[in-house]
Amino acid sequence: MIPINTLTAIQSRRSIPNFKNEDVQRNILQAIFTYGSYAPTHYMKEPWRIKLYEKKGTRKLVEAIIASYQHLGMLKSADADPAAQKMTDSMRRFLLKIPHHAVIYFPRETDPARYDEAYASVCTFIQNAQLAAWEYGVGMLWTNPPYMYDQAFYTDIGLDYKTDKIVAVMQIGYPAKIPLFKGRTPIADKMTFITEE
Fold this sequence. Notes:
Elements lengths: L5 H7 L13 H11 L12 E6 L3 H14 L10 H16 L2 E8 L4 H24 L3 E5 L7 H6 L7 E10 L24
Antiparallel strand pairs: 1-2, 2-4, 3-4
Helix pairs in contact: 2-5, 3-4
Family: Belongs to the nitroreductase family.
Pfam families: Nitroreductase (PF00881)
Protein name: Nitroreductase
């Protein structure tokens, strides 16, 4: 691990869609999410929870994803026709090749203000983890797929839609290729300075 400047890490980090066929060691994954846990957290609640799928355990998540896409009508049942079978098999192979998947969630809050606080805290936790991962040479892809809103998917992976809220499903591994920088809009275009009453 080569230490890098925090500002450089923020600027150089990329979302990684393709990974090498190589597992990230468990101690590195734990270190990455430990750095994530230094995120701001209201009342020190540390609301983030992680289900990390790897090796043979990934299959359970992948089958739940496929079942959800079918349940939502976004993927035809593989029994329906050969084209649906081919698409399902392709999706399954792609997802199983990803070294690690992390479902990041938190216990739902009933109070709207507390819910927003928890959600924001978990998002900060995820970004901290992404920056820490980058320093370890590990890439992540923060995804927000439709199945995150499917109650059946929650049940299939052992969560309760009424009491848990999934914020992201992270794909994790060593980058096969690092995408080019896509640029950002100058921040001055998005800032308004209020100088008078």
